[in-house]
């Protein structure tokens, strides 16, 4: 016979019913129900005063608090906030203190809680950032050692159709030579890839390309990989990314952007073709006519020479050491390792990834020489008859120099 299920409310109702019919001592009644006489009298008094509904659990919070904010203060804070919706807690406190110096005001954090409680604060959208780049940035020690690339902030053209221009710029970090300055309608992968491919065919391949963390250079995928970065890695180019909020780590390129904006976008041209002609004239002047103070008043064209690594006719495959175990990602960006399917990213769909065994029984996953995460078989989750797992991200914001697992 199954056990009867019960709860606190049912037991209290049974206690009251037994109290109303019980003829023995109150102490024996409390013993039968396993409560003290003090608790028993408490439930009897509640029932006699407020009925059966009083047997429900009540909040233990105090009815009043000596440090609670007075209603007059709350009303004053909310009235100022409604007149100035963009003022924060600190500003509200300063203004209220100025208006009523003798009023005891709460802390700014308490004012913020009051604004949230009354629905006067809009919840901020969480900003998801790509995985930080963990290696040390390369030095500008020779031409084509590091290329710098970025999208100059978009701006509307001067025509009536409202088109916006997204200039993609590529420069050599050592010589400051401006390799490309192209006006694009949208900052997408397919548009940027064509610009980079034309630069590779004309000037050869660099050792590294330094960018920021925005698309199409980086995504939220493991290791911050993007389809553009995967293409670079297969070409033997290391994608470097600066830290968020640190444009000074790509300062040479940002300084060129300042000159570019002043020379070509103030005012903007009336059409894309006219804007591109302005970019072309600026590129010739910047490379061959304008002396550069950091180059000893020489022009960048005298310091730059094309790379000896030419653009290949066929995209090479990624190679891994013999100690690595390799897997080819499915079209949905998933690999099978053991009895588990591991979710990587669509960026590596159809690509070969390498798995390096670690001392703690986990596996470090690489694409090329870029470590994109850790694989832990113990953390796989069972969904039906299949096990699924996600990579554990590798977080290294210190950028300590770590030797790649092979040769690079």
Structural descriptors:
single chain; 408 residues; six-stranded mixed beta sheet; disordered C terminus; Nucleotidyltransferase, domain 5; elongated; alpha+beta; 10 helices
Which helices and strands occur, and which strands form pairs?
Elements lengths: L7 H14 L4 H8 L3 H14 L20 H13 L5 H11 L8 H10 L28 E6 L3 E2 L7 E9 L5 E7 L4 H15 L4 E4 L15 H8 L3 E4 L9 H14 L7 H17 L36 E4 L5 E4 L2 E4 L8 E6 L5 E5 L2 E6 L5 E3 L2 E5 L18
Short description:
The protein is built from ten helices and 14 strands. With 408 residues, it is α+β, with helices and mostly antiparallel strands.
Structure write-up:
The chain is of the alpha+beta class and 408 residues long. The chain folds into four domains: 8-55; 71-117; 146-302, Nucleotidyltransferase, domain 5, CATH 3.30.420.10; 325-390, no CATH class. The protein contains ten helices and 14 strands. The protein has helices at 8-21, 26-33, 37-50, 71-83, 89-99, 108-117, 189-203, 227-234, 251-264, 272-288; strands at residues 146-151, 155-156, 164-172, 178-184, 208-211, 238-241, 325-328, 334-337, 340-343, 352-357, 363-367, 370-375, 381-383, 386-390. Strands 1, 2, 3, 4, 5 and 6 form a six-stranded mixed beta sheet that branches. A four-stranded antiparallel beta sheet has the order 7-10-11-12, with no helix packed on it. Strand 13 and strand 14 form a beta hairpin. Helix 1 (8-21) crosses helix 3 and helix 5 crosses helix 6 (108-117). The longest helix is centred in the C-terminal third of the chain and has 17 residues, at 272-288. It is elongated and about 110 Å long.
